[in-house]
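During the practical work, I worked with a single protein chain and the tokens that describe its fold, as given directly below.
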Amino acid sequence: MENRELESGLDRNKNKYIVNIVRDTAMMKTYVKFYNRVKHPRVTMNLLFAGVVLIALPIAADGIALPGVIISYVMGALLVAMALFRQNIAVYQMKADPKVKENEKLSYLFGNTKIRVENEGKIETMGGYQDVYRVWEDERTYFVGMNEDDLLILPKDAFEKGEAKAFRDYILERTGADFVWKPTGLVNICKNKWMQLQMKMASRREDEEKK
């Protein structure tokens, strides 16, 4: 019975949420930016700082031989370029990977018990809600981590079925997963940092009172 429903497309009607995405250049950039923010948040600034220091070194220090000046400028410029274009480089590498299908259309289906993906009319089960370990959110996108290595990128404007603003409560209630608010806007980043600082200070005061 289930196979017939999958083949006829009727199974889509049973899902609480349906999110349609296209794995295009914009989606790849979204993934790269998110990965860098979560896994390597300081790399860009470190590269930029090191590059600027190397470029400024021959100016600030006297007596450096010409070969040293050239090396310092070249290495500094290279590091600055890597800092500014590392996202584009990562996207280029993804496109060069034969396993990555550019402009592939996918639909994520969130049913009562399973999370599935539809690709070219075929539906495969990715896992149950218990397999979701963390949910991240920014101003425009939900990121759902499941099965340790799968990341579902769900733009809020890509919801075909179900309200995007209610999705956070739905997925957290079903999964019990960790939730992380990871904003990209400067104002929201500052607010988030301030809230985290307040929470740390409050926790520290509680520990001191217990002592």
Remarks:
- The first strand starts at residue 17 and ends at 23.
- The mean pLDDT is 89.
